[in-house]
Amino acid sequence: MSPKPMVLDVTEWSRFEIHVDGKLAGYASYRLEPGAIAFTHTEIDPMYGGHGFGGELVQAALDQVRRRELAVIPECPFVRGWLAKHPDYQDLVQV
Fold first, then answer.
1. This prediction's pTM
2. For the chain, which ranges sit under pLDDT 70?
3. Nearest-CA neighbor of 63 among 76, 72, 51, 53?
């Protein structure tokens, strides 16, 4: 059975974290802007690479952004690439 990841918004560190089996597997750093959130860097621990955790992290983070009714500024290349493959999230992107 695959481990179920958990994504948390750790506001004091300005990042979303993904935990797998209780261990930090990666994070997506952000900067709050008026009415928007700018994703600046995404990193997955190499030990957890290749399992899709980066995509799960970004999707869960963007779902939270949508619920907060914020726009997304995709400065991070990984987030930008993920958004390019998921047109159903394009409405979040601030131009």
1. 0.94
2. 1-3
3. 72
